Amino acid sequence: MRQPWRVAVVGGGIAGLAAAVRLRDRAPAGTEITVYEQSGGLGGKLRTGELAGQPVEFGAESFLMRDPTGAESAAVALARRLGLAEKIVHPTVGQAALVIDGGLRPIPGGTLVGVPGDLERVATVARPAADADTDGGRPLVGPDADVSVGALVRSRFGDEVVDRLVDPMLGGVYAGRADDLSLVTTMPALARAARVEHTLVGAVRAAQAAAPRAPGAPVFGTLAGGLSSLVEAAVTASGATVRRDAAVRELTATGTGWRLTVGPTRDPQLVDVDAVVLAVPARPAARLLAGPAPEAAAVVGELDYASVALVTLALPQPRLPELSGFLVPSTEGLLIKAATFFTTKWGHLRRPDGLALVRASVGRYGEEAQLQRPDADLAATVHRELSAVLGTPLPAPVDGHVQRWGGALPQYAPGHADRVAAARTALRAAHSTLALAGAGYDGVGIPVCVRSGETAAEEIITALGGSAT
Question: Which of 10, 351, 411, 415 is deepest in the core (most CB within 10 A)?
Fold first, then answer.
């Protein structure tokens, strides 16, 4: 093994950058790290732009402060490592609403991603099925089984709880449907409890008790100045060579590592490295794995994605409720599936001139045709639907922005975790110096992606004979 090590990170999203930082921190001194990003920008779905003269997120908005065990999340730990902990800010308004029968109703508390642990508390938005959640004398889910969230909740609480509460909550995160999404991947704490508990109410309560939260402790955080500052700080801390507009078109195993084919077909560059962190979405990953690891490629390539558009409007002195935003059940028939009142939710964004920034998310899995509308049409529809939901005509926007994220959100069908585990097992057995990282495998959200990248980096260090501790 030549020294220093040469490691390629393919993909410049937050998972890839977290991997680069972890490699710099724990790999031997002098390790050469190169990040290859096929686009011109880094950060993936972390993108801070500007609207009406102030920073605004055009991608991911915030991160969880705690992980499922109650410990500090990987995103917070990374921010601390990068010297950004003092820039973490929290929502000043946390109450959100659901659109029910065309109007706004507060989202009831005490749920786990919409799944209630107290049926009486959700009666304002949905009528749970009577006496369906009975103790059948055995756990809800078998020891190795996975089911869709919708199937489990419908069987125990009925359709209204799914359609009016669980589905919009999951749709706000994944742009998918509760009936299609894996319980194990999207709600792992509930899945673990469901392997023990005999009722869904009991499973929700057990999952909540397993990760207690101190009263008043913030759930979410973001960075003053924008999440792109996390990206920039990670690049600096990693000391990596960053190559933008550099598509990796092929991976070939060599006797001592990997050969990357980079750049256009007419003028490719061949780069030899000792190891690769593959931190790109599932489909491009499958194409790169097809030659050296066809078994893993076949499994990875099955994952499907949803596309969304984020429409942000700058509205002069609108009359907005004191809410962080709202979610929209698909049964309401609106194009909008969620909206965030940025300048209400985040105190650090409030402006003395009363200008409000409102962002709406458009696009559900299977409804991509709706996103074919021109930007102006999307923005006008969002403005009209916001006015209807709020029950008052909103002023004309003074500025706006439409951010389209094609194929952005993985759709985790039941059995996803087992399929990914099988793919990684096959990959480790054949090529221990090639590791997968990112949302396509481990789940959405900044903390999950950070942890995924860090874990991949540690696997590479171990495979090259170093120490990941």
Answer: 10
Q: In angstroms, rounded to a whole number, what is the distance separating the alpha carbons of residues 35 and 240?
A: 7
115, 178 contact by CB (below 8 A): no
Does the pLDDT value for residue 2 go beyond 60?
no
Using the 8-state DSSP alphabet, how is residue 346 labeled?
-
Enumerate residues 6+ apart whose C-beta is below 8 A from 123. Answer: none
High-pLDDT (> 70) share of the chain, %: 99
* Contact predicate 59/310, CB 8 Å: yes
pLDDT in tens, 311-335: 999 999 999 999 999 999 999 999 9
Has this prediction a pTM greater than 0.90?
yes
Contact predicate 256/103, CB 8 Å = no
SS3 sequence of 65-112: CECCCCCECHHHHHHHHCCCHHHEECCCCCCEEEEECCEEEECCCCEE
Closest CA to 316 of 396, 392, 243: 396
The verdict on whether omega for the bond into residue 28 sits within 30 degrees of 0, i.e. cis, is: no
**Which residues does 244 contact at the CB level (< 8 Å), separation at least 6?**
12, 37, 39, 40, 41, 42
Res. 131: pLDDT tops 90: no
Which of 65-74, 144-153, 228-237, 343-352 has the weakest average pLDDT? 65-74
> Measuring CA to CA, which residue among 82, 86, 199 is closest to residue 133?
199
d(CA 195, CA 203): 9
Query: Beta 241-243 vs 32-36: how paired, if at all?
Result: parallel
Other C-beta atoms lying within 10 Å of the C-beta of residue 390: 19
Using CA atoms, how far apart are residues 274 and 257, in angstroms rounded to an integer?
Answer: 4
Spatial separation of the C-alpha atoms in residues 19 and 436, rounded to whole Å: 10
